[in-house]
Amino acid sequence: MTDLNFGYMLRSIHRWSAQVMVAAVFLHMLRVYFTGSYKEPRELNWLIGIVLISLTMFFGYSGYLLPWDQLAFWAGQIGVEMALSVPLAGEWAAQLVFGGFSLGQATLQRMYIIHVFFLPFVVTTLIAIHIGIVWMQGIAEPH
Ligand code: HEM
Prior knowledge:
This protein is an all-alpha fold and about 140 residues long. It is built from five helices and no strands.
């Protein structure tokens, strides 16, 4: 924000683009729903879409924690408690996503790897499959 030339601008572009992406994916889903473009034979693409919107949210959340400021800390705290409240798999989920039952160095490292390595690969692959299916099936005529 302060040392890198135009660092503050780079961060702001990333931050606001992320907000626009979440809104755009949501609007795209509404477009698909209200034009009935999820109906046969596009059910699989709708399901891939549901995974994509969930991963887009996780992209936003993992990125939200990386500044590691007060906002990030309390958002992380809520996340750990939500994970721990999952019946049976709660502790496992908290270990997997947050690196433990409370926030710490492991959480920051895990969120960083998820945000800059794991999610980019998974989401890019899914978007390629998603658009590939559209390319094969063509855009649906509004139902
Ligand atoms: C990162 C997120 C996503 C990206 C980049 C993406 C991209 C696209 C693109 C470029 C198309 C073709 C043009 C268009 O109809 O707009 C498309 C079609 C489609 N998308 Fe997505 N999408 C995403 C998320 C979703 C979500 C959340 C859903 C639903 C839950 C969804 C369901 C569909 C369906 C069913 C089609 C076919 C529509 C048709 O043939 O008219 N997509 N997607």
